[in-house]
Design brief:
Structural class: alpha/beta
Pfam families: PQ-loop
Largest sheet: 4 strands, mixed
Catalytic activity: L-cystine(out) + H(+)(out) = L-cystine(in) + H(+)(in)
Number of strands: 8
Helix content: 55-70%
Membrane topology: Multi-pass membrane protein
Family: Belongs to the cystinosin family.
Strand order of the largest sheet: 1-5-6-3
Shape: elongated
Protein name: Cystinosin
Number of domains: 2
Order of helices and strands: EHEEEEEEEHHHHHHHHHH
Distance between the termini: 81 Å
Length: 361
């Protein structure tokens, strides 16, 4: 067995005190590399093996990456393995470590590194820029309407159907994003169903949906605070809202009772969000048509929504192209549908404000 190089001693010292028997330790749990690139890293574990050949590594999807052990070293009671990971094809896979015990003919495996293979770091950077930019403008999209309601001390011309449906939609979208981003068991089930796919939910999606929920909740509060002029929810809006709330309750109850998988429950929540996205703008567009005016409906919010919708769809397309992972768009129908449908309604509102009712502002 070779002596450990001085360049690797620091790594062992930093992670060694956290090690337990059979547990692989790596400096990072996920990494992004380019197609054809070789990534080198160190894997450490407690040294309780008779020889280094008992430790091996393999890729879950070996057509995406290959992994090779290039060196093994001992330092105290620690075993350090150097490995090289080669990006062979675009996509996402997991590198596993395996310990074989010849004495009882048993082996244990553990997922150690999630690897994403991309075409270009520039495209990866572009997708991040698109994501955080659309997040920013969609966050800002809430405030023009809140400000207009406050400035006018009135919500006349602002559809109550829209804002209440939007609140339910953001609740479902928050549940969906939090589950996909923070719950390991749900993420694991997703990868099992879609091997090599990328998690469609990013951190900006989580922050956006939670912020949207609380911002919309405040607008609902404004409905009760300011002048309404006798304006109420429509009967159709009340029926739809009640149906969606009941559906959401049944979905969550079914998941809690293990009638359906949590992953499926999140998909069903996303479908409720899609229903909300399809229907929520209709009452506002109809109200504008009835009043022959867009007074009460903030055009600033529409402009922000338009920009955010374009960037949201663009981000998903860039990610899918960069990783050859078009299934992630279908794996996140809410995000893609939200962007496309919002964009369509934005065109309608811009036409109402700047063309049809431009003299009635």
């Amino acid at each position: 067995m070779n002596l450990i190089p001085l360049s690797n001693i620091l790594f062992v010292l930093l992670v060694g005190f956290n090690l337990t028997r059979g547990q692989f330790i790596t400096p990072q749990s996920s990494v992004t590399i380019l197609l054809g690139e070789i990534f080198k890293t160190n894997i450490s574990l407690e040294y309780s093996l008779k020889n280094c050949s008992q430790v091996s590594f393999y890729a879950e999807l070996d057509y995406i990456t290959s992994v090779q052990k290039t060196g093994t070293y001992s330092y105290g009671n620690q075993l350090l393995c150097e490995i090289e990971i080669l990006g062979k094809d675009l996509g996402r896979t997991t590198i596993w470590g395996q310990i074989n015990d010849p004495s009882n003919n048993k082996s244990t495996s553990e997922a150690i590194i999630h690897v994403t293979v991309e075409q270009s770091y520039v495209l990866g950077w572009l997708s991040s820029v698109c994501g955080w930019t659309y997040f920013s403008v969609w966050v800002l999209a809430l405030y023009p309407q809140i400000y207009d309601n406050w400035k006018r001390q009135s919500v006349i011309g602002f559809s109550f159907d829209f804002v209440t449906l939007n609140l339910v939609g953001y609740a479902c979208y928050s549940i969906y994003n939090i589950g996909f981003y923070y719950v390991p068991s749900i993420v694991g089930d997703y990868y099992k169903r879609h091997p090599g796919a990328t998690n469609p939910v990013q951190l900006n999606d989580v922050i956006f949906s939670i912020h949207g929920f609380f911002g919309t909740a405040y607008m609902v509060l404004q409905v009760f605070m300011y002048e309404r002029g006798g304006q109420t929810m429509s009967k159709a809006g009340v029926i739809l809202l009640s149906t969606l709330i009941i559906a959401l309750g049944l979905i969550l109850a079914s998941a809690l009772l293990h009638i359906i998988a949590w992953l499926d429950s999140l998909y069903y929540c996303s479908y409720i969000k899609l229903v909300v996205t399809v229907t929520k703008y209709i009452p506002q567009a109809f109200l504008n048509y009835t009043l022959k005016s867009t007074i009460g409906w903030s055009i600033g919010a529409v402009l922000c929504d338009t920009c955010g919708s374009v960037l949201s769809v663009l981000q998903m397309i860039v990610i899918s192209y960069n990783r050859n992972d078009w299934v992630s768009i279908m794996g996140d129908p809410t995000k893609f549908g939200l962007g496309v449908l919002s964009l369509c309604f934005c065109v309608i509102f811009l036409n109402q404000h700047y063309v049809l009712y431009r003299h009635n502002k």
